[in-house]
Amino acid sequence: MSSACRSAVFVRPALLLAALLLAAPAAAEKTRRPSWGGFRSPTAQAPEALGSYTRGCLLGGVALPEAGPGFETIRRHRRRYFGHPALARFVTGYGRTLDALGLGPVLVGDLSQPRGGPMTSGHRSHQMGLDVDFWFTRPAGSRRSDAAFASLVDERRERIDPEVYRAHHAEMLRRAALDPAVARIFVGWVIKRELCRTVKGDRGWLRKIRPWWGHTRHFHVRLACPEGSPECLDQAAIPEGDGCGTESWFSKAEVARRKREARMGRPKKGPRPKKPPRPPLPARCRALVEG
Ligand SMILES: [Zn+2]
Fold first, then answer.
1. Residue 83 Cα to ligand 1 middle (Å)
2. What is the pTM of this model?
């Protein structure tokens, strides 16, 4: 036996003990600690949205039915069809509106996990049971991948795709925006620009239509904090006006600035810039996973 091996024999009990001390709590934690994506059901509490849209959770959530008049949920296996009762009410009411207009059934994407909270994939928000995605179109075949859904935007030319975009898409957005429970609706900036150019008559609802990256195949509806959620943080109020002026997100100068910013934020080579640490979840949310 070499001296190295002998010394290994001597240190082994100490190492073993250290390993056990380190491993035991971790292993116990693994079995005991639930994760946000692992919850199978909402909490049995009074409904409450807690925290912010990007850092929060949901108490007393409800499951949106698989389908109803004017709407149909997809990808149920992901268990992201839970929301605050106000959100379930909104989706079912919106479905009925679309149904009456002959525009349904709309395909419904993700709401929140049974108890909200951060998701491992797909969304930064959707954490309080107040956000829901709707697809603009209905693909003929599989709905498993996002690419199966047609984009309303010709991404390369940065303009609306006249082969896909139809007047009823604007009507779908308008009807959602008219609901007083709705705070914001996110769409691709090219879509907002198109609405700004084409909507005649009442343009008040355009204010809630917020231009963003992506969101060319689906739109994202966000409800304001509902009653009975004192720890729910609304976003800052939207500035006055329809958001279509020269100060808007998609003015030429703004688009150029945002692209520059996006490029600078994601260098192709070298170390990525460190993201600032995320604020902790509200204590009452943490209590759900920390046990
Ligand atoms: Zn969304």
1. 13
2. 0.84
